[in-house]
């Protein structure tokens, strides 16, 4: 058989390379659900979950130079203010610091454990406090539920304007009480870091390693029940 032209010989090779490129593009998109070059295993949600919820994650690799404007930060606080509140009590209060201001410096001094390593790169820190309610168990419980709802709304609002938000229990609440003269009828519960996710190559390797770990959750079958406890909602007959 006569040898073909160079073009004829290379044609199938270039077709193969195109296909390979398409496959690699798909794989790398799958491994980059947070964008910006991060290598992350995708975390699947069922169809129909809102992209803000689907895209949320607690990052640690923040860009220590990124700033948040007062308007953007105010929008996050207002999202928290408008969270549902048990009995319309509105027990939640915020202590708010932007990087480089005194409040931010005071909040970073309360960070404990591993948080002291990454959270100072936040663009803002928000200490979320609630009513102490030492003598009323019900009020105390729902004062904490209100915090959870406020934090959740703030996280999603932050995500919607391009910031990551990471809740923390790892801070010294007593130190915060002293530093900010928090009154006896309030208690700090959560410290929320808001930050811009840095390019992966700018992040310390230990933080990057943690941020690239797969995110997992129990399967829905193990957390959502119908008929009787433990019987998965998803396998129940639905009219
Ligand atoms: C009440 C609460 C306290 C948390 N405290 C910390 C903390 O101190 N430090 C930290 O790095 N992450 C903290 N987290 C974040 C969790 O580690 C994180 O949500 C969990 O690993 C799941 O990851 P994901 O948010 O990306 O889904 C906290 C989360 C919650 C809800």
Description:
This protein is of the alpha+beta class and 239 residues long. It folds into two domains: 31 residues; 154 residues, NADH Oxidase, CATH 3.40.109.10. It is 39% helix and 12% strand. It has a four-stranded antiparallel β-sheet with strand order 1-2-4-3, sandwiched between helices. The radius of gyration is 24 Å and the shape is globular. About 5% of the residues have low confidence. Bound molecules: flavin mononucleotide. The site of flavin mononucleotide has 9 residues, from strand 3.
The CATH superfamily of the largest domain is identified as: NADH Oxidase
CATH class of the largest domain: Alpha Beta
Number of strands: 4
> Residue ranges: pLDDT <50 for 5 or more in a row?
19-29
Small-molecule binders here are: flavin mononucleotide
Describe what is shown at a glance.
The chain has helices at residues 6-30, 51-55, 70-81, 102-109, 115-118, 137-160, 173-180, 205-211, and strands spanning 93-98, 124-131, 164-168, 186-195. With 239 residues, it is an alpha+beta fold.
Task: Sum up the structure in keywords.
2 domains; 12% strand; 8 helices; 239 residues; NADH Oxidase; alpha+beta; 4 strands; 4-stranded antiparallel beta sheet; binds flavin mononucleotide
In terms of topology, how is this protein built?
Blueprint lengths: L5 H25 L20 H5 L14 H12 L11 E6 L3 H8 L5 H4 L5 E8 L5 H24 L3 E5 L4 H8 L5 E10 L9 H7 L28
Antiparallel strand pairs: 1-2, 2-4, 3-4
The protein binds flavin mononucleotide (FMN).
């Amino acid at each position: 058989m006569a040898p073909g032209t160079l073009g004829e010989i290379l044609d199938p090779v270039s077709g193969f390379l195109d296909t390979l490129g398409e496959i690699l593009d798909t794989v790398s998109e799958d491994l980059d659900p947070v964008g910006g070059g991060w290598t992350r295993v995708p975390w699947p949600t069922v169809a129909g979950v809102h992209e803000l919820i689907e895209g949320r994650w607690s990052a640690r690799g923040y860009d220590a130079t990124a700033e948040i404007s007062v308007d953007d930060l105010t929008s996050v606080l207002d999202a928290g203010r408008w969270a549902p509140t048990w009995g319309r009590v509105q027990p939640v209060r915020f202590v708010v610091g932007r990087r480089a201001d005194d409040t931010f410096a005071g909040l970073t001094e309360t960070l404990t454990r591993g948080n002291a390593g990454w959270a100072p790169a936040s663009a803002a820190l928000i200490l979320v406090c609630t009513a102490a309610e030492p003598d009323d168990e019900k009020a105390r419980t729902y004062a904490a539920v209100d915090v959870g709802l406020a934090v959740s709304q703030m996280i999603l609002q932050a995500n919607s304007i391009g910031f990551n938000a990471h809740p923390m229990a790892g801070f010294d609440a007593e130190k915060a009480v002293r530093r900010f003269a928090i009154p006896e009828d309030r208690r700090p519960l959560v410290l929320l870091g808001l930050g811009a996710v840095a390019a992966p190559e700018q992040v310390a390797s230990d933080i990057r390693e943690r941020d690239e770990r797969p995110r997992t959750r129990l399967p829905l079958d193990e957390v959502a029940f119908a008929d009787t406890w433990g019987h998965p909602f998803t396998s129940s007959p639905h009219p």
